[in-house]
Amino acid sequence: MDFTAGNTSDAPRSDLPELLAALAADLRGVGFTVDGVAGLLGDSAYSALSRDQIIPSLIATEKAAKGDPDAAALAAVVRLWLLAVPQRAEVLDAALPGIRTEGLLTLGLVEPSTAAEDGADPAWGTVRAKADLRPYGWGGDTATDADEAGADSSGGTDLWVASDLAAHQQPGVLRHDHVLGIGQASTTLVQTTIRRHVSKALDLGTGCGIQTFHLLQHSDHVTATDISARALAFTRFNLLLNAEALRVDPARPEDRVSLRLGSLLEPLAGETFDLVVSNPPFVITPRSPGEAAADQFTYRDGGLPGDDIVASLVRDLPSVLAPAGTAQLLGNWEVAAGTSWQERPQSWAGTDVDAWFIQRELVGPEQYAETWLQDASESRDRRHYQDAYAAYLDDFASRNVAGIGFGMIFLRRPAAGARPVISRFEEITYPIEQPIGPHLGAAVERADWLAANDLAAAHLLVAEDVTEERHQRPGAEHPGVILLRQGAGLRRTNLLSTELAGFVSACDGDLSAGQIIGALDALLGGGDGFDGQAFRDGLLAEVRNLVRDGFLLPA
Fold it and tell me: How confident is the model at residue 178 (pLDDT cuts 50, 70, 90)?
């Protein structure tokens, strides 16, 4: 898709580099950044905005509009794009003197307001937001935006992201080709991705381009695909608006980014990539006879029945991975009544790839229907809401679905001559450290280390974040429960046997694992029926699990 294609229907223009440069300079000058917005609104209003509750921000910006000129200028920009409050052209001209209202109209970021719809006086030359435009930034691997309360982008990168207006910014049901902005799923994937330098990366289903922003920080070239031409137009606009910060040459953007229009892997023409990330349209949606693509919400609905979109990606993504290439994505999967949640994901993952699924949430059909009907504002029409709710329940009942899982997926094609070493399907529903990507990367490295080394000969240390807890009843001579806890990463807890607790306490790097196990065998064994070999093998297997999970590390 040509970067200079000009207008795409109802999307901002990206073929006017002078206006884009002027807009970026004005946004920076007025302080329209993550930290700037947070400072203007204050902690409580900023936190409420993250919940799509705009009233505290409306109050805060009304006060700021009556204050000093700098605060008033920023308040006007915040009210226009984050709160969808129409603004007078003369106010915007003062706040954004380089591009002015005329330039915003030309780019397609605003449109003339009407008295009938907004209660505005047309004689004032009032305009309203035609698209959402908001600050986005990161420090290190942490993504933040004006809806992520408590975030801090100090010392990081300040960017701006355009997308369609969200449900709380406009009346009615969302358009079916809605281009989603920065949401919880996209930031989850940002924080989950293992960051390493790669030559070629793929952002599959780019939406407004958030994953591509981050991939450009550690990839020589990024290919971004989407089934929606409007989504690619927003991505193109965002890339060129932030060209300097993303190190993209506006005259030759194709040197670093390629935009491809098409479904899933279709536009890739046999290419392979070192890293693939995807926040795919994984939402499970009832299918109906005669349904057309225009009837689907393209940002979330892949058009396939049940969880087939995620199943097909898990099966097919290894074909576009280079040797040692990895893929990370989010997904939903159905859990049939009377089965474990792992059964379907295990059936998708081939035995010739590394696969790691972490289920983060499991909800029932009713809660799932409520979530996604609310997401598209389909609850505003009661009759439609009832019919759509019933369609969800009937659809799940047709496949005997009792629950729907959500989680993170890691896939890896083994390097040439190597064999898979990871096959994990686990549930972690409690809070974990963010960003989690570095910890997932370390876990993959430990799995590789275990596959390549003799654990019995290794010298081990207890990880710095690990603590031990001992619980016993009052008056008891020995503890009844011994736990290891991680303070970082996936924050796992491991229940220890007496011999495993003894092993961990001896892991100071001096003795090998085999030597420690031998000493424990001599100390605890020797009784009738004691099987020394079984004891040593069993303890070594438990130690292997502690290394795999990061409680113990090679010295």
Answer: confident
